Amino acid sequence: MKCDNCGSVETYVTEYNHNYIIKNKEINFKSKRRFCRSCNCLIYDKDLDNLASEKAIFTYNKLYGIPKEKIIKLRNSYNLSIGLFAKIIGCAKKTLISYEKGTSIPNDNYTIILNSLIHNPKIIIELIESNKSNFTDKEYFKLNTKIISNNNIDQLIFNEEFVPTVYNGYTKLDKNKVLNMILFFADDIILKTKLLKEMFYSDFIYYKNTASSITGLEYSKITYGPVPDNYENILLLYKEQNYLDLIVEYNNEYELHKIISKKKFDKNVFSKEELNTLKNIKKYFSNFTSSSIAEFSHREKAYINTKFNKKIEYDYAFDIELN
Description:
Elements: E1 11-22, E2 25-36, H1 46-63, H2 68-77, H3 82-89, H4 93-101, H5 108-119, H6 124-130, H7 137-148, H8 153-158, H9 175-185, E3 189-191, H10 192-210, E4 219-222, E5 225-228, H11 231-240, E6 244-251, E7 254-261, H12 272-284, H13 290-297, H14 301-304
Antiparallel strand pairs: 1-2, 3-7, 4-5, 6-7
Helix pairs in contact: 3-4, 7-11, 10-12, 10-13
């Protein structure tokens, strides 16, 4: 190694007091550096200089940011790969790797997201939903399966404070009715798309006749028609509780998501009018395939007048005509 200042090749290594400014924060630490023995100038030493940079990042993260150990622990707490976790927080895989290696500092946005997850792990579900377009269907299903084992989804879905609105049919969410509505329609085998549409029509037709919904579920518009909010988490919850099976089969390039009930539905949780509505909807759509019921739902004003991924107002029920 040669000194750029005086040309000497005689060097020595000693502890050096560093003073860095990172993101307007003053960072002080000691680290070994190489010096010229003749003029005492700093000499470039790739290994020692890289260690000094890593120590600067480590010191900053420890004082003001998020240490790499906390990021790794957070990701592992969800049992997620680096690739999936990177998609959830919205960064590139190589960026997350650099955070976990301690070779870079998370920017302000990622620092906020990571700190939010550390202090409130359950918001990962909101992040997954908000970044849903980043995932393939397989990844999304895998995420829901993994996350459900780390969070009390029952609490997240069903124990929210009730506020009557046009989006829940002015009805408090009733998990027993949600479960038994699913079991009623899946008494044999039903494809997921058809199940979700029959749930939609049951709640909305009942609202049309009584000004209240059966389940209190909120519904949103997605590509395949109206669906209950959190439907993936709801189905996974009941799978975990052994009420039903979720089976994915592949037909050429198409995925078929089959739902099979493992318990008999309890008719006693429904009123006579509610049960009649379920029976009428099941009968009306008995000969519909998943594709045809999805196409049918696309003609509804509830679907046409609602923006994608937005909640559907129950008042559109009065425009539904089932002949």
